[in-house]
Amino acid sequence: MNNRILSVLSNKPFLYLWLAEVFSQVAMNMVNFVLIIVAYKVSNSNTAVSGIVLSFTIPAILFGLLAGVYVDRWHKKKVLLWTNILRAVFLLALLFIPSNLFVIYVVTFVIAFITQFFIPAESPMIPVLVKKDQLLSANALFGLGIYGSIFFAYALSGPLLLFFGDMVVFTLLSILFLIAAGFVLLIRVPAKVDRVVEKRKEVSVMKDLWSALAVMAKTKEISQSLLLLTIAQLLVLIVGVIGPGYATQILKIKLDAFALLFITPASLGMVVGAVVVGTYFQNFSKSMSATLGVLLAGVVMLLLPYGGAEISSNGFILFLNGLLPFSVGMIHIVVILAFFLGFSNSLVFVPSNTVLQEHTTDSLRGKVYGGLNALIGIFSLVPIIMVGGLSDIFGVGRVLTGIGIVIVALGVFRVVMTWRK
Asked: Where residue 408 falls among pLDDT bands split at 50, 70, 90?
């Protein structure tokens, strides 16, 4: 790992924040996955699973921005501490309450509600603890923690449930949240942050909310970064929703193999991308990096329908195999496409987060991230509700092609607008 990234980890307050992020993200991602599995086991219904997804999504829509307003009026270290503790407590409550679908929905909703306060307190802490010229590397490490935790949680959730059962897993996840809270306790926050918090309390909540919305709408760097981060998250959700159909209809593989052939290389691409951006993109335009990420994601989405089993008999592939010392088949194509889809996500995530932090103050940052969480919640309803149905009507391949065209068009539009400046 590059010296720039390692130098950020030598900053102990940031190191503790990063470790807290890793443990809390692993726990939260596993909570999402485990509760979906448990809900299905209790109900044996796909509709019940959709209810779990909505229970995670609705609190972001209803409370995301408002939670950001309050977080900016509170001490973010305390918010991080108590949100981790409270999520641990509500998970432990499942040990003492009989498992039924209503209880699972309630716990899911409450944990998602608490998380609305956690999100606008976490990333906004980064510029408080590191220097401005270290922001890109710090966000690369945060991206590394988020994407690594997704992969780690996805890989471990199933085996842990299988071998140890629901109750042991809930206890383990509660412990992970409490470990994250322990690392938060170790963070030393500069005294100037406390003064900003006290001053913010003098402004009314509604005035604070409307002023934040005005800044987000009028500041181009902020609004564009919010849009890019929302799109990056939407692509992840779309792949999650459309993944089973893509595996069975286009790749002609079992669902179990999809995790190995697609999710794993995509997660690896995200991790590698975060390291590359943090290491080599220090002097590169953040806007251009994000544009490259959008274009790459669009191209990959356009190519995904052509990664099916019949690709092995394609004339071009046969010609390519005649030139190469090894054979290229469907598996290799899919793994490479998945890797670059994950890589493109990092090209958007790391610089866009850095831009948000560079163009916001300590008194505004929580509201901006709360707004981002609300945007993701609002727009994620579309893939949850529509993408699956559209795939059933028009086919997975056509839906992927349509999404790819839209994303490429957005990337081209950004390139044209950059040239006009």
From this structure: very high
Which element (helix H / strand E) includes 187?
none
Structure confidence by residue, pLDDT tens digits, 73-119: 888 999 999 999 999 999 888 887 766 778 888 888 999 999 999 98
- Whole-angstrom distance, CA of residue 49 vs CA of residue 15: 36
Length of the chain measured in residues = 421
Which residues does 14 contact at the CB level (< 8 Å), separation at least 6? 8, 126, 129, 130, 138
**From CA 211, how far away is CA 344, in angstroms rounded?**
33
Q: 3-state DSSP call for residue 273?
A: helix
Give the amino acid at 402.
G
Of 276 and 42, the structure prediction assigns the larger pLDDT to: 276
Whose tokens are 């190191």? That residue is 15
| 348 neighbors 276 (Cβ within 8 angstroms) | no
Contact (Cβ atoms closer than 8 angstroms) between residue 226 and residue 236:
no
201: pLDDT strictly greater than 80: no
For the chain, state the CA radius of gyration: 22
Burial class of residue 359 in the structure, from the number of CB atoms within 10 Å of its CB (0-12 exposed, 13-18 middle, 19+ buried): middle
State the pLDDT confidence band at 313, using cuts at 50, 70 and 90. Answer: very low
Three-state secondary-structure class, residue 362: coil
* 158 vs 29, residue with greater confidence: 29
Q: What is the dihedral of CA 108, 61, 269, 345, to 10 degrees?
A: 180
Domain ranges of the chain: 3-184+200-420
Separation between Cα atoms, residue 292 and residue 61, nearest integer Å: 29
Q: Which of 30-39, 110-119, 232-241, 301-310 has the weakest average pLDDT? A: 301-310
Helix axis angle, 220-245 relative to 205-218, nearest 10°?
A: 80
Asked if 281 and 291 touch (Cβ cutoff 8 Å), the reply is no
Across all residues in the chain, what is the average pLDDT? 80
CATH superfamily membership of 3-184+200-420: MFS general substrate transporter like domains (1.20.1250.20)
For residue 326, what is the DSSP state? S
The answer to whether the beta carbons of residues 296 and 340 sit under 8 Å apart is yes
What is the amino acid identity at position 248? T
| Tokens (6 digits) for 335 | 């793994």
